[in-house]
Amino acid sequence: MERPHRGYSGSYNIPYKMKKIVLAFVSVSLFCGCTDEIPMVNLGIDDVYYIARMQKLDFHPALTGERYEWYVDGVLVSEERDYIFLSGEEGDYNVELKIIDPQTPYDFSFDIHVLHEEIEYSAYISKVYEYCPAPGQFINEMPRYEEGDTYETILQKVEESISGTNDIMISLGGYGGYVTFGFDHTVINVHGEKDFQIWGNAFYELLNPDERGGSAEPGIVMVSYDTNCNGLPDDEWYELAGSEYYSKDTRHTYSITYQRPDPDREIVADEDNSLDDIYYIEWSDNEGQKGYIAKNIFHNQEYFPKWVNSDEISFSGSLLANNAEDISGNGSYFVLYSFPWGYVDNHPNEYEDLNSFDISWAVDSDGNPVDLPGVDFIRVYTGINQYCGWLGETSTELSRAQDLHIDLPGRPNP
Ligand SMILES: [Ca+2]
Ligand SMILES: [Ca+2]
Ligand SMILES: [Ca+2]
Prior knowledge:
By secondary structure, the protein is an all-beta fold. The protein has one helix and 29 strands.
């Protein structure tokens, strides 16, 4: 799929966004066997590139060798054959590629001029790639399903809800439900700083605010870098390791499947009549557990996503420990406690730092830290599989995300 570019074709003469650069070296034979020196190949007018900050330029050398070394301003940055250049800072950079090979060593040097974008970037979400909620009491309502909607039109509604500063809350439903979004540029991983913030609808209850309990419905964040530069979230995903990542109570290979409501189920209400269908949507997990998302009297729409045709939906990921406590002892008053840091919809939005995320928290599927230069795709999924009586299933909500490295008009970032 062709990704729309940002209008760089005319004025700066070379790259589109995501342009693939193939270093096709001509006249190679002229240099062979003539000298012991490593030949410098002049790439002609193509040895200068212009690109906007926070956009990638990916290089694929046509020539091969035993080893490769890429340098930016003299600093070794990669020993892979292919290299993606990305800079958050405007300026002039010298890039050098050394192909180390006993027969045919080469050394190429060229300049990249990183410019300010022609159209100012948005600091907020510009694109929603996926919306796959688990069943829940707010599904088909946040956003609302209307007759004739398809996955594509629902996706559009989600994008309209959470992009820019529209600030319309969407729900991810029960455990595993997720949304994937991105910005109109790559979010740079500035080392030593948090990189983006996400808004939810968590609150602390008024009686004991110091305990940081109330409605915390933590969502786990995953990030991905568009390493194949196709504009699609089909690259490797990394979890951002929040405060609970290394806890013994966190399970890292959890999976769950929800069933479409069985039309032949026995309709049973609970004793105090806050739930009118306690066997509504059955789930089963890979630990042999089973349970139900009940239908409650407060939300009468269907809870299984209506645009989904399949009879079951599955999710997998890390599972956080339950965070709710029934302080009434009779199911009438639950407090959902916040985890310390690193989750969405986990602290009230005014605690900006506790709702902000550092790309350097990324870990691979074995839990090893990964040093990403930036991210193009961010995914949030409900991290708890918990049911709290009349409050219903625990579900992550979110309404906005912001790249903390983009200056806002009239308010430069510190
Ligand atoms: Ca960072
Ligand atoms: Ca991709
Ligand atoms: Ca919430």
